[in-house]
Task: structure prediction
Amino acid sequence: MELLDGKKILGEIKLELSQKVQNYIQKGRRAPCLVAVLVGDDGASQTYVASKERNSIECGFTSRALRFDASMTEDALLLEIEKLNADPEVDGFIVQSPLPKHISAQRVFDAINPEKDVDGFNTINSGRLMKGMNSFVPATPLGIVELLKRYNIDTQGKHCVVIGRSDIVGRPMSILMSLPSQFGNATVTLCHSKTKDLKQFTLQADIIIAALGKPEFLTGDMVKDGAVVVDVGITRIDDNTKKSGFRLSGDVKFDEVAPKCSFITPVPGGVGLMTIASLLQNTMKAYEAKNNL
Result:
């Protein structure tokens, strides 16, 4: 069993990006700019945005966060998005989810200029992904594919089972794995809450991507020997033995599943860090496209 080490790969990607940034700056260009918009005071979102800021700056990007109160109206948020769309110094930006319930997330995502939509949630980018066209791919699925690439995991003709059908992870993941590409060409089964006897599918899987948000859902008896398991889930669970008062759990019961795997992601230290890596890569892609580099 080998760990798919998101921390290691994030470090490699940051080094590659920082070298690119230095090269562009030496040629008289400005650094790429990434902006995060945060509405409300969700603790996990604040932590995530702070991490994105820190990692962006470590790559040499210009990074800033716009923070607004949870009472912000949808129209006011759309006005801020218009400003970012029009700002020539901003290459890419994200609107952190979850948003307050009175704001339509999809309306907000669709207001983002597709060329600056580095989270890949705009309907135009979703459609381009479906067609196998050049697009911004949601950061988590893109990060998972990057992990598979960096560890040279063969996906050709393999049976990949994706558990979860969210617009953010499950459905775009299923599309990426089925695309005719070096790290695609898999036979994909997309499972969800209405799937009957899910275990029959996971036991057939060469690759399992668990993205349903239920702690320790995937157990050892659901996985065949030699499978590759990617754990997307991350849930805070109360734990009085921890200084923080909680521990982080993935969708995979790691101690049971890991001994059966050829490769597996840890939680934390796996997919979450790759999500940040992909966001940085998407920002560089937007910057280079904008400047015809």
